[in-house]
Amino acid sequence: MPNINHCRCILVIGGTSGLGRKLALSILNLPSRPMVIVCGRRQERLDELAASYGPSGRLKTMRLDITSDPSTLRSAVSSIVRAYPDLDAVMFSSGTQQYFDLTRPETINLDHLSNELTTNYTSVVNLIVLFLPQLIRIGSSGRPAFLYLVSAGMAVIPWVPNFSASKAALHNLSMALAVQLRRKNVHVVEIMPPLVESEMYARLPHRDQLATFWMPLDECTKQTMAGLVAGAPQIPIGMMAPVHQKYVAGKLEAASKMLQNHEETRRGNVVNPNTVFPSRGQ
Ligand SMILES: NC(=O)c1ccc[n+]([C@@H]2O[C@H](COP(=O)([O-])OP(=O)(O)OC[C@H]3O[C@@H](n4cnc5c(N)ncnc54)[C@H](OP(=O)(O)O)[C@@H]3O)[C@@H](O)[C@H]2O)c1
Fold it and tell me: What domains can be seen in the chain, in order of their start residue?
């Protein structure tokens, strides 16, 4: 099964801290010795990574704000692909999270709302579209290519307004991409973390309470790496495993059947929807 060990050159977007940073370093240590390129906005974090791990010759950095305008993103993607023609995997660990209290709408800043959606979804889908020609080219050459998307448990249990919706969009996108791109030898993997130790919560007044029950970052990284090595298409971490089993299991297969059904119909063949999705008792 294609898995992270087949990857020769990976770009980790959102690798300057947290899960992205830990995963970038764990991937750097794989026995397959891939090239790892780390992206983010904070230059001092990129400099620290380059100083500590650059001498390996396999860790590179590049500053990128994924919310930049489409022409900036297009030229960033072109220069990455030109510099690393072996690029066969892109991981999106970038993200932002805010709390909006919908019972007090006067407190909600619409710019913040929009930025959360752009960071967590629109920029990601834009970049995926821009990287796909490279990934499809690698896939057609006979070796697998990969897209790794970090969504969230809150994509499935939507209790945080806007953040949950942005991650639900990413969750749905990852399944639609997975079923379409499989035939191009591009493998899409969704990572679904629970609440995890993070700098993201540093400014929250209840950070210390969260710290009493969040998953330690090292544990989350370990479980994610195990899923990446196993080649799992969806990696629910920790308490997300039973949530995945209850609300998500079977959806990817259903989406795949739906696509086949649609293609059969377009070819003029009649497909009985009941044979595609048998109702209970059939
Ligand atoms: N921690 C949790 O409890 C939790 C739970 C579920 C899902 N997740 C998801 O897991 C992923 C990693 O989160 P984390 O906990 O590791 O948070 P984190 O430490 O805050 O990391 C977020 C990363 O995203 C990057 N980023 C944010 N905005 C960006 C932008 N406009 N352009 C480029 N990079 C940007 C940040 O880099 P710069 O600031 O340097 O740009 C940073 O590297 C996120 O997608 C998050 O939503 C986290």
Answer: 4-239 (3.40.50.720), 250-282 (no CATH)
